[in-house]
Amino acid sequence: MATQVQLRGGTTSEHSTFTGAVREVTVDTTKDTVVVHDGSTAGGIPLAKEASVLPLAGGTMTGDVSLGDNVKAKFGAGDDLQIYHDGANSYIQDAGTGSLYIKADNDIFLSRNGNTEVYLKCRIDGAVTLYHNDNEKLATTSTGVDVTGSVTCDDFTSTGIDDNATSTAITIDASENVGIGNNSPSNNHANANNLVVGNGTAGGIANYVGTGLGWYAFSRDNANNSDAFDGGISYDGSRNLMFHTNAGSERMRIDSSGNVNVKTGNLVIGTSGKGIDFSADANNANMTSEVLDDYEEGTWTPEYGCSTTDPSGVTYDNVVFGTYVKIGKQVFISGGIRHDGMSSAGSGSLLIKGFPFSAESSSGGGTPRYALSVSQAESWSDLHPVSMFMRYGGDTADILTAASSTNPQKGRTNLYHTDLQTSGTNQDLITFFGHYQVA
What is the pLDDT of residue 253? Predict the structure, then answer.
């Protein structure tokens, strides 16, 4: 019969109060396992059964692995990847060579414990989205990024908008003025330095709209303006250039043929001596100016006068009128005068006074220059006015009559104060017209 070795044994409960001798071996009958004793540990040290041990070749664990603080789970021949908790924070540490890859066949989310707040979402074949306080702020798209909200940065440096730029293309300076092709936009005029394009060489800004309507518009605060702009410049598909003001109303147009059309308002020449220049026309050899620099029209009031002493106490009736049109240096006038009596006829040759402008001066002194026509003369005592003339540098006209009442072709002579009637109504009517030249 074979020799048997029988070891002392007991239940797990009995072992818990038993301290065996050094190298003593007992059997835990509850666990069916061998217990080795060291002479000091109560219950001894149970040995694991084969079914409870994970083979070196690998297997499946059915329980948890609990590691204490600063106890690391290490992976790799050189402990390259380490996962641990130091008592305050948790770490996934790539301590070796190579990169750290996080891979998934579907989406990857980074969120707060319990999924109560999302930090990052990585969608398969889609966007990578960053969140702030669980609100989406930045997401990648197929063409770039989509930002929800504003972008704030302390500084921005770029040599260009695209990869082809070889120098600074856009500058935003400390005053937030923008330069395109200009590194110092604030150095330009203070009223026009918010956006400066170019650096002094030939160039420009193109607004490509095909055959549509293109705009450069100006906006302003105006409670009465329902439009999004107040004025500006537009260019349409028919090659018409238009200027707009006051809620975008068209004021002037230059059409494709070069014709200028002022839609509303007037063409105002704001500097004296300036006007419309006709220099494109052929010139006479004695031409002195091709600028039409003035146009004016209005009224004036003619009065009787005399070369020595003017009449006094004149009562004019309702036939007293004067109109004029001034085009450049030429003044076209018409007028009429009649009276209902006067205190005194004055003395000297008879004049019409009050013309709107003085005739131009000449070295000829008082020599007559401009003849005026008499269109009507009635209720004179004897001799009647037949013509008038203005002298150089003067603003009065002499009244002329025939030198001979029986021969009107004999010549002209002045009327005098004695030809005026001092009493009666509707006396000494004269109406006239003509033109003269001013300086």
Answer: 95
CB of 434 closer than 8 Å to CB of 353:
no
Q: Coil, helix or strand for 390?
A: strand
Spatial distance between the Cα atoms of 379 and 377, rounded to a whole number of angstroms: 7
Q: How far apart are CA 405 and CA 381, in angstroms?
A: 13
Residue 303: the pLDDT is: 97
* Cβ neighbours for 91, distance < 8 A, ≥ 6 positions apart: 82, 83, 84, 85
* Whole-number Å distance between alpha carbons of 189 and 210: 33
**The pairing of beta strand 249-254 with beta strand 260-262:** antiparallel
Q: Taking 60 as the threshold, does the pLDDT of residue 364 lie above it?
A: no
Full DSSP string of 255-284: -TTS-EEE-SS-----STT--EE-TTS---
Mean pLDDT over residues 307-319, rounded? 96
Report the mean per-residue pLDDT for the chain: 88
DSSP string of 8-68, one letter each residue: -EE-HHHHTT--PPEEEEEEETTTTEEEEEESSSTT-EEPPPGGGSPPTT-----S-----
Percent of the chain with pLDDT over 90: 59
How sure is the predictor about 34, in pLDDT bands with cuts at 50, 70 and 90?
very high
Bridge partners for 399 per DSSP: 388
Return the ∠ at Cα 197 (arms to 160 and 150), rounded to 5°: 60
- CA separation (Å) from 176 to 179, 180, 191, 313? 10, 13, 14, 75
Would the pLDDT of 264 be above 90?
no
